[in-house]
Amino acid sequence: MVQDTFTPGVVAGRLDQDTYEAQFSDLHPPLGAHEALVAADRCYFCHDAPCITACPTDIDIPLFIRQIATGTPDAAAKTILSQNIMGGMCARVCPTEQLCEQACVREAAEGKPVLIGQLQRYATDNLQARGEHPFTRAEATGKAVAIVGAGPAGLACGHRLAMLGHRVDVYDARPKPGGLNEYGIATYKTPDGFAQAEVDWLLKIGGITLHHNKAMGRDITLGELQEDYDGVFLAMGLGGVNALGTTGEDKAGVLNAVDFIAELRQASDMAAVPVGRDVVVIGGGMTAVDAAVQAKLLGALNVTLVYRRGRDRMNASPFEQDLAASKGVRIVTHAVPVAVHGNGAVRDVEFEYVDDAMKGTGQMLRLQADQVFKAIGQTLEGDGLPQLDGGKIAVSQGGRTSLDGVWAGGDCASGGDDLTVTAVAEGRDAAMDIHATLMGTAG
Amino acid sequence: MANLQSDFIGIKSPNPFWLASAPPTDKEYNVRRAFEAGWGGVVWKTLGMEGPPVVNVNGPRYGAIYGADRRLLGLNNIELITDRPLEVNLREMKAVKRDYPDRALIASIMVPCEEEAWKAILPHVEDTGADGIELNFGCPHGMAERGMGSAVGQVPEYIEMVTRWCKMYTRMPVIVKLTPNITNVLYPAEAAKRGGADAVSLINTINSITSVDLDLFAPEPMIDGKGTHGGYCGPAVKPIALNMVAEIARNPETAGLPISGIGGVTTWRDAAEFMALGAGNVQVCTAAMTYGFKIVQEMISGLSEYMDDKGFTSVDQIVRRAVPNVTDWNQLNLNYVTKAKIDQDLCISCGRCFAACEDTSHQAIAMSEDRTFSVIDEECVACNLCVNVCPVEDCITMETMAPGSVDPRTGQTVAPEYANWTTHPNNPAAKAAE
Question: Which SS3 state, helix, strand or coil, does residue A71 take?
Fold first, then answer.
C-alpha cells in the first residue's frame, strides 16, 4: 500500500511504482543517432583543443567527435577507451560542465558547449552494448601485479597492465567489483546495471582475476602482496566516514550518506527502501547531493542540505546544486551542526549559523528530522600503509609511494580531485609506470 | 520599403526573384503556390515537342552534399524536361498567366535542333500569353545524349543558329540559358548575342556525381546499381556562377547583354551579389526546393532593407555596380598591403587559425600558453586563410597598412601609388611605368 508522503517517520513505499521508475531512470537519456550527428556537427575541431587539456584522461575529444560525425562511432569509442577504459561511466558521471564542456570554445562563444559527455556515451555505449572489446593483450610478460580495490583506479590500472601482458589479481572488500561506480553514485546517473556491465566488458581483455570479499588488513596484508607479486597497486578508496562530533550523533536515524547511496544502488525495488518524511543531509559535496536528491526522489517531503560554508565553496558542482534545487531540495549554507536531538531516534538537528570565517554567530537553526545523512568527508583506513600526506597515501609521478614496488591511485592517494575520471587517469598512469619498472625501462 | 519592381528586357515583375525552370515550376499547382508566396516570376519547366512526353527514371532523381547540421549545400539531379504532355502544360500556363497578369511567366523550351521543330512550338507558346521564352541549352544530363540541352549549348554555332530561328518565328523576348560545362562561357554568350538573343541566363547545372555508395560501389543518385552524372546546383555552385556572370558582364563583346543570374541563389544577399555583378534579375531553384516557396519573403524584405540602407530606389541601381571592380589579376595593386588582426574580445580560442597558418601557410600566428592567438606581422602575407577558417564572423579581419608605414615582413615602406604586375621589376615582360 502506498504511504502518504505526509506520514512521519522512516517508512518505505511513499510513492507509487511508476513514480519510482520515472524518478530513478536515466538523468540524461542517451542520444539517438540523429541527435548525436547534430551534436557532433557543432564541434570546431579546435587546435590543441582546450577540452582535451581539461580532461583528466586526455581523451582526444575533437577526434572522437569527428569520428562520430563521419559515421564511424566505433572508431570514436576506441579513441575514447584507449585513453580512458571507463569512458562509458565517465560519460555519465563526470562533472563535464566543470571539465571538458566548460573548456569548450562554444561555451565561450555561445554559452552552449558541444555535448561532449553525451557524445562520449553515444560512442562507448554502442560499442559496449555489442560486447565488443577493442583491445588485445600483448604477449605474456611473466610478471604479476596485485591491485587492492576494484574501483575505477584499480580496474583502469588492471586493464592497462593486462593489456601490456602482465597477470593481474584484483582484491576488493565488497562482494561486487566497481567500487564507487557500483556503490557510491546516484542511481539515476547509472541505471540499468551499467556499472557491472562495464566491469564485465572491461574484463574481456583477459588476464585479470577478481577476488571478492578480500579486505586489506582483514583478509590480506600489504606485506603478503609485496611478497607474492612483482608489484602492488593500492586503490582501495576511503573506507571511513567522518563523524559530526556532536552530541546525539548516535541516535537512530543518523546514517552515513555513503551507506544510503550504496543501499539504493543495490536495491532491486525502490519502494522497499525506507526514507524519512523530514530528511537532513549534512555536507556540501557530490555525496551530499546524491543522498539529498535521492531522498527526495524516494518521496521524502522535506529534504534540507546543510553546508557549513557558502555555495561557492561547495564541492558539488553548480550543476549538481541546481539539480538538487530543481528536485526540491532546500540548500542551507553557513550552518554547522551542534547537536542531534531526539529520544532514541533523531527528532531534530540543531545548527549554529557561522560567518565566512566559520565563526559562530550565536544564531541557531533547528531542523525537524527523522533521518539525518552525514556526508562530511571520508577517511583512509588501514595500518602499515606507505607514508601518508594529509591523510592519504603520498604519491609522486606515476603513483609511486614511499615503498618500492608499491603504487597507489584513486581516492586513497594524495593529489587530484576525487572524481571517477581522475581515478581512471591515476590507475592508467600508474600502470604505465609499473610496466616500465617491471620491464626495466623506467626512467 | 524600397520598390523592388523589376523590368528585365521589357518583362515586368513585382520583384527580381524568379523561379528557375525546374521541378518547382512543372505544374499549375506549384506555380500558383509560388505566386501566392510572392515570387515575381516563373520560368516554366522546360517544354518538349508535341507527342509522347519524355519519361523519367522511377528511382532517385536527386543526390546531395551537406554541410554541418545536414545543411544542403549542393543538389544534383537527373530529371529530364517536363514529362507531361505539351498541351497540358500550355493549357495550365495560359490559365496561370490569366490569373497572375502582373507576374512574369517564361516558357523554357527544348526541342530538337531542327528549324521546323522550333518553328512548330513557338506559336503554341505565344498563345499562352507567356512573357518570353528561355532556350534550354544547358541541361547536361539525359537530354544531352539526344543532341539537346548542353549538347547544343556546347556548340556556339548551334546556339547562334537556334537563337536566330526563335527570333525569326516569335515576337516574344528570347533568353538563352547557358551551360557552365564549357571551357569559356564567353563563346556561347557571344554566340547567343550574335543570334539576336535578348538576354542570357546562367548558369545551368554542372556535370556531377554527388557521392558513391561504398557498399554497392555505385554513384549517387543510384538507379538499380548504376548512376549517371547529373546536374549540380545549390549554394555550392554560386561562386562558379558569379564568375561566369561577371565574365559576360565585363566582356566588351557582351557588355550590353542582359543577364538573368542563376546558380545557388539562396538569400537576398546572394541575389544582390549576382545583380551587382551584372545580372538584371535572378532565378532560384535549389533554395526553394530545400526550404519551400516562403523563402522569397526573406529575399524581398532583405533586398528592400538593403536598398533602403543604401538609398537605392530601384533594383537597377544595384545591377552592374560591382562590374567595374572585376578585373584581371595583373591589374591588382601590388602596393596594397594588409595584415590579419585578431580581435581578442571576439576570439573563442579554438586555434583553427593557428593550425591553418602553422600547418599549411606561413607560420604567422603565435599561440601562447593561455591560448591567446596573435598575428606575427613579420610573417603574415595576408593570405586570408585565418579569416576564412575562423568560426566567429569578424573576429579576424584584414587591416590595410597605411602608405608610408613599413611592412615588417618585407622591411619595405608601403608605397602610396598603385602598381601592378605589368610594371613589376620581377616581370620579364614589364614595361616601365609611363
Answer: coil
Neighbours of A146 (CB within 10 A): 24
Q: Which amino acid is at B21?
A: S
A 103-122 → B contacts, CB under 8 A? 105-106, 108-109
Give yes or no for A37 touching B (CB within 8 A): yes
**DSSP at A48:** T
Vertex B420, ends B415 and B424: CA angle to 5°? 85
What's the CA gap between B434 and B431, in Å, rounded?
8
Task: Judge whether residue B81 has pLDDT over 60.
Answer: yes
Is B184 within 8 Å of B253 (Cβ atoms)? no
Which chain A residues contact residue B354 at CB under 8 A? 47
Q: Quick: pLDDT tens for B133-162.
A: 999 998 888 888 888 888 899 999 999 999
- For chain B, residues classed under CATH 3.20.20.70 are 6-325
pLDDT at B394: 96
DSSP letter at A216 equals B
Q: A33 at the B interface (CB within 8 A)?
A: no
- Across chain A, which has 443 residues, the per-10-residue mean pLDDT values are 79 92 89 96 97 97 97 97 98 95 96 98 96 96 98 98 98 96 92 94 97 95 97 96 93 96 94 96 96 96 97 93 96 97 96 96 97 95 92 96 97 92 98 97 73
Q: Is B430's pLDDT higher than 90?
A: no
Angle between helices A286-297 and A318-326 (to 10 degrees): 20
User: Which residues of chain A neighbour B351 with C-beta distances below 8 Å?
Assistant: 46-49
Our answer to whether residue B113 is catalytic in this structure is no
CATH superfamily of B6-325: Aldolase class I (3.20.20.70)
**Is residue B434 scored above 80 in pLDDT?**
no
Report yes or no: B164 at the A interface, CB cutoff 8 Å.
Answer: no
Q: The domain A33-129 belongs to what CATH superfamily?
A: Alpha-helical ferredoxin (1.10.1060.10)
Residues B284-293, mean pLDDT to the nearest whole number = 98
- Which residue of B69, B349, B393 to mutate against A (max A Cβ within 10 Å)? B349
d(CA A431, CA A423): 12
Choosing among 3.40.50.620, 3.40.50.300, 3.50.50.60, 2.60.120.260, the CATH entry for A144-239+380-438 is 3.50.50.60
If contacts are CB pairs under 8 Å, which of residues 382-401 in chain A contact chain B?
Answer: none
Task: Pick one of 3.30.470.20, 3.30.70.20, 3.40.50.1820, 3.30.565.10 as the CATH number of B329-423.
Answer: 3.30.70.20
Residue of chain A nearest B351, judged by CA positions: A47
pLDDT at residue B143, rounded to an integer: 85
Query: What confidence score (pLDDT) does residue B26 get?
Result: 97
Does A105 contact B68 at a Cβ distance shorter than 8 Å? no
- Measured CA distances, B418 to B310, B331, B332, B358, B400 (Å): 28, 10, 9, 31, 14
Instruction: Strands of B142-251 (E only): list them.
Output: 174-177, 199-202, 206-208, 211-213, 218-220, 222-223, 226-227, 230-233
Taking contacts as CB-CB distances below 8 angstroms, the residues of chain A near B346 are none
* Active-site option among B139, B347, B357, B395: B139
Distance, in angstroms, between B211 CA and closest chain A CA? 14
For residues B366 and B404, give the distance between their C-alpha atoms in angstroms, rounded to a whole number.
26
Using CA atoms, how far apart are residues A90 and A113, in angstroms rounded to an integer? 17
pTM of the model: 0.91
Provide the pLDDT confidence category of residue B418 given band limits of 50, 70 and 90: very high
Cβ–Cβ below 8 Å for B350 and A47: yes
Which class in CATH covers the domain with range A241-377? Answer: alpha beta
| Cβ–Cβ under 8 Å, residues B102 and B14 | yes
Could B350 and A105 be called an inter-chain contact, meaning their C-beta atoms sit closer than 8 Å?
Answer: yes
pLDDT at site A110: 96
Q: What angle do CA B88, B89, B90 make, to 5 degrees?
A: 95
